[in-house]
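Our platform keeps sequence and structure together, in a single record for each protein. Such a record has a labelled line for the sequence and another for the backbone structure tokens. The tokens are whole numbers drawn from a learned vocabulary of local backbone shapes. The remainder of this section carries one protein's record, kept here as part of the documentation:
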Amino acid sequence: MSMEFKGKVALVTGGSRGLGATTAAALAARGADIAISYVASADKAEAVVRTLEETGVRAIAIRSDQADPSAARPLVDAVVSHFGRLDILVNNAAIAVQGQTVDDPALRDEELDRQWRINVLGAVATTRAAARALSDGGRIVFVGSGLGSRIPFPGVADYAGTKAAIVGYAKGVARDLGPRNITVNVVQPGIMPTDMAAAVADNLPEAVMDLHAIRRIATLDEVAAAVCFLAGPTADYITGGVLDVAGGFQI
């Protein structure tokens, strides 16, 4: 495998499990030193760090709650203090609160508000903090969702709204950081085999599968590879873009 990220430092938020851990491993396999953030899964985070270190890269896990925007600056400062630089930010941390329509009398308002804090305000705060620290020519990749641009079923309004907001924000950041040759893009997966999607991923109705031209869900490796592409040198002239990795869900 190409060592295209040798000498680079990447921060992957929410990197203790699921897509975050897979993306961290994919970046490390290509030579990047890795920082991952986590909230509560300390044992899982340390296990990810050990696995990354076994590939020959440097790695660190930092506890940081993305629901608290004030935690973003200390997170980025810790990465730069440990490694001396930051080249790649992968805004992966997110939660999914789904299943209720907005007129549901039992709507879980507090959970939905927390979702907006984590998925949007937390990602924005991390991006603001990282923007000042990123090396010129660096990369920011947001992990969005196919639901950010297509909503084929009810009960996902707030989640879809958070992901649509990220697309607009990413485009604005791409414009801001373009003069420094920092690219900013969004990867939009469909349903993936993660803990967050476990409630639906294994029992998808045929009608949902029919929405995909390729009738299966994405693998974590496929989505991580898309992140690595946008973070790599062959994507130098791609910025403000949205890359769907969803088997034709957007068609």
In short: The longest helix spans residues 109-133. The radius of gyration is 17 Å. The chain has a mean pLDDT of 93.
